[in-house]
């Protein structure tokens, strides 16, 4: 059973030696335990934050511990009356490993969505979709006619969030890196405009695209991109702080906006965590299901094969060298 173990806390992008792939024996199952073979491992920007020894929404992964990660797998052996071999499951606390021995209480059954591949459960109908859906509908309360700016817009969460905002009648501007990603947003996903932050000044582009200012910001990146949007939020503008991916590898504090604008423009700025919305997943499925079925909302996954490449795969999230929700296929379905 191969497992990625955290050996030292990375400084900047993960370097060789920060994690180690070790081989361990699978222990015998005890009563109520289940052996799960990992099929897909979700790689998420937040994984990098778990490697830091800093206060977060979860404790840091300890040195010598298996790297934490969201997984979907198949039951190989079971001493639980609730799960049998062949069941598709998600452990509530998974890891970067070929196999996991999990207590039955730590497993959720996975219901395949009719007509959709299993990867949907790890993306548009999983945490990614939940984050995008509740960020737009519940945190931002996006309304018809409002102008919304979404950063990391061609990424997993951003691309779905933009399409949901379109369904709510918003005017949607995405910020993404490179002409191909920007063309995908406007030509295929129906975004009203896209700003290529690698080739143009985000502030100037916003002044051109939204001369009266911005109503809503779905923020995934932080730093200079966030500041450019924040400085154009209208009076009573609303900002959902979903992620700050540009700072996850930073070794010094990133630049921040001037909070005086929160006062002068009576802004509503709210951070949120998808974990709080997990109990409301049905609401998302009920509204998104038809959009997915008839193609109104499109989604992509980028699947890398092999647990052994997981570290290199994770780094893709910080270079943008991936096309859709990033997953590792650890074994065949
Ligand atoms: P993505 O698929 O969006 O991948 C990350 C993207 O971020 C990259 O593709 C890249 O896009 C962009 N990016 C990375 N570094 C930078 C940088 N320095 N400057 C500008 N853009 C950068 O990942 P997710 O959809 O999984 O996550 C998106 C955000 O949502 C993250 O901040 C994440 O932490 C957050 N999140 C928050 C959750 C919550 O509960 N609050 C839950 C899930 C995600 P490009 O090629 O365009 O540069």
Cα separation of the termini: 18 Å
Largest sheet: 7 strands, mixed
Number of helices: 9
What's the name of the CATH homologous superfamily of the largest domain? NAD(P)-binding Rossmann-like Domain
Overall structural class, as computed from helix and strand content, comes to alpha/beta
Number of domains: 2
Beta-strand fraction estimate:
25-35%
What best-fitting shape do the alpha-carbon axes yield?
globular
Instruction: Give the SSE order as H and E letters.
Output: EEEHEEEEHEHEHEHEHEHEHEHE
CATH architecture of the largest domain: 3-Layer(aba) Sandwich
Mean pLDDT: 97
Given as residue ranges, the uncertain stretches (5+ residues, pLDDT < 50) are none
> What is the name of the CATH topology of the largest domain?
Rossmann fold
Q: In the CATH hierarchy, what is the class of the largest domain?
A: Alpha Beta
Total strands: 15
Bound molecules: NADPH dihydro-nicotinamide-adenine-dinucleotide phosphate
Helix content: 25-40%
> What is Rg?
20 Å
Overview of the structural elements:
The model has no long low-confidence stretch (mean pLDDT 97). The relative contact order is 0.15. The protein has nine helices and 15 strands. The longest helix has 13 residues, at 127-139. With 333 residues, it is of the alpha/beta class. The chain folds into two domains: 2-116 and 299-329, Medium-chain alcohol dehydrogenases, catalytic domain (Quinone Oxidoreductase, Chain A, domain 1), CATH 3.90.180.10; 127-276, Rossmann fold, CATH 3.40.50.720. The strands form three sheets. Strands 3, 4, 5, 6, 7, 14 and 15 form a seven-stranded mixed sheet that branches. A six-stranded parallel sheet has the order 10-9-8-11-12-13, with helices on both faces. Helix 2 (127-139) packs across helix 3. The chain binds NADPH dihydro-nicotinamide-adenine-dinucleotide phosphate. NADPH dihydro-nicotinamide-adenine-dinucleotide phosphate (NDP) is lined by residues 44-46, 127-128, 131, 152, 154-158, 176-177, 181, 220-221, 225, 242-246, 272-274, 317-318, 320, 322. Pfam families: ADH_N_2, ADH_zinc_N. This is NADP-dependent oxidoreductase.
């Amino acid at each position: 059973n191969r497992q990625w173990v955290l050996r030292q806390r990375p400084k900047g992008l993960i370097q060789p030696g920060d994690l180690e792939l070790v081989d361990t024996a699978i222990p015998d199952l005890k009563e109520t335990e289940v052996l799960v073979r990992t099929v897909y491992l979700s790689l998420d920007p937040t994984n990098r934050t778990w490697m830091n020894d800093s206060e977060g929404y979860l404790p840091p992964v300890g040195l010598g511990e298996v790297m934490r990660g969201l997984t979907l797998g198949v039951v190989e052996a079971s001493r639980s009356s609730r799960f049998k071999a062949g069941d598709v499951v998600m452990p509530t606390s998974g890891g970067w490993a070929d196999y996991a021995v999990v207590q039955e209480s730590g497993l959720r059954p996975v219901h395949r969505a009719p007509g959709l591949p299993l990867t949907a459960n790890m993306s548009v109908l999983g945490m990614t979709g939940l984050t995008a859906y509740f960020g737009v509908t519940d945190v931002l309360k996006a309304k018809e006619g409002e102008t919304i700016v979404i950063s990391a817009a061609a990424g997993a969460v951003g691309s779905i969030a933009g399409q949901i905002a379109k369904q709510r009648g918003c005017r949607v501007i995405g910020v993404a890196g490179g002409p191909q990603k920007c063309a995908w947003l406007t030509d295929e996903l129906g975004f009203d405009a896209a700003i290529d932050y690698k080739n143009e000044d985000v502030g100037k582009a916003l002044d051109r695209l939204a001369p009266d200012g911005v109503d809503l910001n779905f923020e995934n990146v932080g730093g200079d991109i966030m500041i450019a949007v924040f400085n154009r939020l209208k009076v009573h503008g609303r900002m959902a702080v979903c992620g700050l991916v540009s700072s996850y590898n930073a070794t010094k504090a990133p630049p921040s906006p001037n909070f005086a604008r929160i006062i002068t423009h009576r802004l509503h700025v709210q951070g949120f965590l998808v974990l709080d919305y997990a109990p409301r997943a049905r609401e998302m499925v009920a509204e998104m299901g038809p959009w997915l079925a008839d193609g109104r909302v499109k989604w992509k996954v980028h699947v890398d094969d092999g647990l052994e490449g997981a570290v290199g795969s994770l780094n893709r999230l910080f270079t943008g060298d991936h096309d859709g929700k990033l997953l590792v296929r650890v074994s065949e379905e």
